[in-house]
């Protein structure tokens, strides 16, 4: 009989010696246990390593059974230890069980027993068993579990999602939290990169690609991008994505990138809202500045005239004085007009007269033209009206009168002496908004020079009551107070067209 | 300093024309004064004369005017003038004392000699006419 072609093995003793040598190399405790039908068991073999693993001698292990089952094993683990053993014995399934022992020298250790049961003809069950010390492994597992728990907790607490992009397969891992941001079931998932890109808002795509490209080309050390992503509800949400490449291949090309994704929708919407509010405040501030300017400039010009006149009167003779007193009256009239203009502006700004009514546009225009009948006749103005009979606008009556009156008188006042004045009123609907154009063939305005200041008070608000500045400024304020706007097209010596958009909802 | 024998007043306020006339008279200024209501009228007038010999010695220029304001007048006027030696002395007269106008006056430093705030008084005239 040959054993493994090994000359060392000649008989049973040498075989035993051979196996003992081999077993000595195994750090685990090897033993055989026989469980008889009458529930008596015996340990028939145990390797020397029992000294290390159990801190007892082989004999103690074999014969003082209480040491194995009771004394060493943690009290709480003893029940499960025996249950598992019985289960394995009865079902002849593998016995694989972790348990804790308290050793005199090493203290608390985690052990794992593994054994395959075999039923013998006499009904007994033999266990060929192995016990290993798995304390280090258990501790590592515990550390890992704790850190994973903390990680999961941090993820949830931070409301940030995690993504992990494998560029070799182009598959992206999305954490449960990230799926939740998308409005999906809160469960981690893997999708191709295109799944994500197809959900980015088209308006944000260019910037997203640029920022990502810059990072992949190593122009930036970290990647950070804010964009809108389509959620399952069909709405876009603002998100902040941050990350960086974590792995490069041998040629230095990026192969893996990781990062976080945060839902910043509320923040971003507030920011946008704030931006809008700032715009409103800026425009209000500009109007106030303008207004302050008018007040100081216009009142001042009257006041300075008054002072000069009074100075002159002191040294004037009787005849001169009489003439000067007449001018005093003119100054007083001018001052009254200015103050009434200012009052009108204040009223618009404080929205005293914003009551709206349904007004027939054509009807109102006819009324204005009746009022201006003499002027129109005097200048020989030809009038053309292209407004359907039934057009109405939701407007403040006083404003509508004032606006029509102002554009009409302006057109007459600035008509060209070189040709017969023509005035045309054309109604149209532009993008669902009602608009009226007032066109003339008059002097025109050089919009390159005056465009910015046309409706502002700064340059065009003048002392004499015939100036067009104050009128346009008031008109503009009225139109805007009604939620509309004014556009102007003009060419020098050809004519001017003012287009009044009524309110947005029309 | 050349004696001022002719001047333009460019200001849209007709009452101011009257006031200035009287102020000149009371202070013994007998320069020939021509009054315009805006820059455009003044430019047109000079174009009509079509010779630099008739340029005034002095221009008192208002800032805020319709049609063509003081700054636009300056742009146009300095662009067409080809001999700066013959340029009139120009003073800006404004009823607003604000930074925008004062900074703007600096832009025209070469052309504008000074900036006065209305009302113009005797002391101002003394500075302008070097009485």
Automatic annotation (TrEMBL), chain A:
Name recorded for this polypeptide: histidine kinase
Catalysed conversion reaction: ATP + protein L-histidine = ADP + protein N-phospho-L-histidine
By its UniProt entry, which CDD domains does this protein fall under? PAS
Q: Where is the Histidine kinase domain?
A: 294-506
User: Membrane-spanning residues where?
Assistant: none
Q: Which residues form the PAS domain?
A: 147-219
Pfam families to which the protein is assigned, alphabetical: HATPase_c (PF02518), PAS_3 (PF08447)
Q: Which residues form the PAC domain?
A: 95-146, 223-276
**PROSITE patterns linked to this entry:** HIS_KIN (PS50109), PAC (PS50113), PAS (PS50112)
* Gene Ontology molecular function: protein histidine kinase activity
- Taxonomic superkingdom: Bacteria
According to its UniProt record, the EC number is 2.7.13.3
Q: From which organism does this entry originate? A: Flavobacterium cerinum
Keywords, comma-separated and alphabetical: Kinase, Phosphoprotein, Transferase
The record ties this protein, via SMART domains, to: HATPase_c, PAC, PAS
Q: Which InterPro entries match?
A: HATPase_C_sf (IPR036890), HATPase_dom (IPR003594), His_kinase_dom (IPR005467), PAC (IPR001610), PAS (IPR000014), PAS-assoc_C (IPR000700), PAS-like_dom_sf (IPR035965), PAS_fold_3 (IPR013655)
Automatic annotation (TrEMBL), chain B:
- Domain Response regulatory, by residue range, is 6-131
The residues forming the signal peptide are none
Q: Which InterPro entries match?
A: CheY-like_superfamily (IPR011006), Sig_transdc_resp-reg_receiver (IPR001789), TCS_response_regulator (IPR052893)
Keyword set, alphabetical order: Phosphoprotein
- UniProt superkingdom: Bacteria
Gene3D superfamilies, alphabetized: 3.40.50.2300
Give the Pfam families listed for this entry. Response_reg (PF00072)
Biological process annotations from GO: phosphorelay signal transduction system
Where is the PTM 4-aspartylphosphate found along the chain? Answer: 62
For this entry, the protein name equals Response regulator
| Species of origin | Flavobacterium cerinum
